Amino acid sequence: MATSYDFDDGVGYEDMGGGYRQQPQDLGYDPNFVPDAVKTFVVHLYRHIREKNVYEIHQMYEGSFQKLSDRMFKESPWPSVDAVAPYVDNDHVFCLLYQEMWFRHLYARLAPTPKQRIDSWDNYCSLFQVVLHGVVNMQLPNQWLWDMVDEFVYQFQSYCQYRAKMKNKTEQEIALLRQYDQAWNVYGVLNYLQALVEKSMIIQILEQEKEGLEQFTATDGYDYSGGSNVLKVLGYFSMIGLLRVHCLLGDYHTGLKCLLPIDISQSGVYTSVIGSHITTIYHYGFANLMLRRYVDAIREFNKILLYIYKTKQYHQKSPQYEQILKKNEQMYALLAICLSLCPQVKLVEENVNNQLREKYGEKMLRMQRYDEEAFALYDELFSYACPKFITPSAPIYEEPLVNYNQDAYRLQLKLFLYEVKQQQLLSGIRTFLKLYSTISIGKLATYMEVDEPTLRTILMTYKHKTHAVDSEGKIFSNADVDFYINDDMIYVVESKSAKRYGDYFLRQIVKLEETINEMDRAKLE
Amino acid sequence: MGREREAPKQQQVSYTVEQLVALNPYNPDILPDLENFVNEQVSSQTYSLDANLCLLRLYQFEPERMSTQIVARILVKALMAMPAPDFSLCLFLIPERVQMEEQFKTLIVLSHYLETARFCQFWGEAAKNHNILEVVPGFEQAIQAYAIHVLSLTYQKVPRPVLAEAINIEGLSLDKFLEHQVANCGWVLEKGQGRGQLIVLPRNEFNHPELKKSTADSIPLEHITRILPILG
Fold this sequence. Notes:
The complex is a heterodimer. Chain A is 61% helix and 4% strand. Chain A has three domains: 112-417, no CATH class; 436-494, no CATH class; 499-524. Chain A starts with 35 loop residues before the first helix and ends with a helix. In chain A, a hairpin with a 5-residue loop joins strand 2 and strand 3. Chain A has helices spanning 36-50, 54-72, 81-84, 92-109, 114-132, 142-164, 171-179, 186-199, 202-210, 230-249, 252-259, 274-290, 294-311, 321-341, 350-367, 372-385, 407-422, 426-435, 441-448, 452-466, 501-524, and strands at residues 438-440, 467-469, 475-477, 481-486, 489-494. In chain A, the strands form two sheets. In chain A, strands 1-5-4 form a three-stranded antiparallel β-sheet. A two-stranded antiparallel sheet of chain A has the order 2-3. Chain B is mainly alpha-helical. Chain B has a domain at 16-121: ARM repeat, domain 1 (Serine Threonine Protein Phosphatase 5, Tetratricopeptide repeat). Helix content of chain B is 65%, strand content 6%. Chain B has a three-stranded antiparallel β-sheet. At the A-B interface, helix 8, helix 11, helix 17, helix 20 and strand 2 of A face helix 3, helix 5, helix 10, strand 1 and helix 13 of B. Strand 4 of chain A pairs parallel with strand 1 (155-159) of chain B, so a sheet runs across the interface.
């Protein structure tokens, strides 16, 4: 399923002018005509859903829908829901699901009209209400459930971008916006996600799972005792949806708080779908970068980039492949930023480091310099890799209509660069500190070409900026080179990474055992 | 009797607001409660980042309801929460045109001085803007605590003038302050080489790196369990 992460509509922030494009109307498209292939598709999908055959549902959802879209609906929408309803007993829930896919296909391949954006919102409302009232008795693949949450947030973001481009709006469009002011309203979006989290009791389920009272992760969220997985798994993915929405709003602290019930140090249901895995870590890492917890960001970026590096080939045929590559590139850019501000290279695995050097090695060298060009590079990488920030409030119709779709992005960029500026002298200090085990304040001040009081403030800034506050309020160090001052003398402590012999031996023991077992087997043949 | 009635009510208000934020964070109706809660935090010298971010979020959703006076108070409170990054967290949510207002520009400059440990400039600028800061009790003490925090990360022994500048206390008042710290916080006074006094700050893992626990050598139990079948 071609789901869109953040960046489907437009490459960067530069090309977002203009209003909506009129949907290219294929003259041959008749919404009421249902080709035989589609009839077969909906009939089978409906049957598999009723029989709770998750495997077949997944095959049809990931495979057949995609193939049919490629073959028959490249440039036109699927047949309308009203036209297919007779083939599926006019089943209310199935029609909502079909409609959701219908809109998703439309967003991915064509351009939605303003009215279609609003209709899609209505469809999500109906769908989520049905789920929240607990009348859904289905078992749907995680991939599909993830796509729903992902698409819901994507369409919200897309709507905010669309609405913020007021300059070229026709009167008709503006009238529509005013008439349907509840469509994609930020309160509505957040409250649906929040309601799914609460109603599903997912936080309590994950808590109880830790005590062995409940199974969720072990079964990948599926319910093998006859129940439905839909509400539970939607609730689970909604926590990731909330993280993403809060990041889009610039509220990183709250975003991370929403993710807390999921333990990202381990695999879990969020890793069962590649798109969800990447979205989670991308936003987690980005939020930590903005909170100056560089080490946390570096660690998780490293892990997922290594994972993508090793498994990329298996996703080549997947409809998400392009999105995976795109996010992969963006996360390398974010990793380059993190490491330029906090050079903890030893946290980065060799393959990832090689990739990083290849992509950004030269830029990272220039980013160390902290001249105008370095700032331009921070700007460039941040703009390329940041989420597509939104302004959630409605336009002010009484005032002259202006575009405000870049306001949120500009603010986040400005504040980020402000932070970079505050740290601009630190890489110089770090370079000197690495050369000495002890050095007097006076001498270092001369080398740095500043006076002593200024040097003392730079040294304190170094300490402050390399010591972040974690979510529990505890101080922890991000520094690779550390020091302390005794009166007028600086004592440098380079944190040498102690080789982890324990781990090494453990791995070798396991390896040896495997080899011996293999040799034993070979003798038998 | 009035006092008796008021006490439980106050308690209930704070309890309710924090609960509202936890249970109902996306509800525009709690906006007035959150605004009152900001004022309450100011007067009772308490602090809730979550509640304040929640309020800034509601302002972000409905800019026409924003009170810049409340925003200013939230920002002063966030400065007082240094070294935590709360001030930036708040700025991320405040529209740029609002940040252009004079009082916010001032607060951003103050934050910049604190972030770059330029305490001398900070206290100078703070003195010029007493009107914004004095409405929030405990401001000076909070910043002094932050300055001491940064000094303790950095110094084992700090020269008296450096300390004096960072916390903006001099002469006899500084003597009194030091006396108090020696008695209560484990500070020790030493005579420096020839000139002036040195203050020995309490040891922590940041100014005494050898105190840092090395976790690198230990192996978690669950890793050992993996090879138990082999060993057995």
